[in-house]
Write a structure and sequence with these properties.
The protein is an alpha+beta fold. The protein is built from 4 helices and 6 strands; from the N terminus they run ββββααββαα.
Length: 106
């Protein structure tokens, strides 16, 4: 199996689940949901710091890319900020890329 598998409306590799979706004009839309990013973090960061666990679990339920979406009494943006504050032990190239992606969504 090759590293990349092309489906009708998305691309993904074996390690990182989803890179980009095709929008209605069949152009690549690189904005992913918080849930997709959280899945990638969970598969990459094997020993998640205990302080980041509740925020990672919350991000796994956020099927949106809107930072103003609500998660109980907090916004999705607040959940991401809390996660980033507790994710200082998440290091490496993948970590840097995933954190930058989260920061760009705020």
């Amino acid at each position: 199996m090759s590293a990349f598998y092309n489906e009708k409306n998305f691309l993904f590799s074996e390690k990182i689940s989803i890179f980009a979706y095709l929008n209605k004009d069949n152009k690549m839309d690189k904005k992913r949901t918080f849930q997709q990013i959280a899945k990638d973090i969970k598969s990459t960061w094997l020993n998640v710091y205990f302080g980041a666990v509740p925020y990672l679990e919350a991000m796994l339920t956020l099927d949106t890319s809107d930072p103003n979406a609500m998660y109980f009494y907090d916004t999705a943006g607040d959940i991401v900020r809390y996660f980033l504050a507790n994710a200082q032990t998440f290091r490496g190239a993948d970590a840097k890329r995933l954190k930058a992606e989260l920061k760009s969504m705020l």
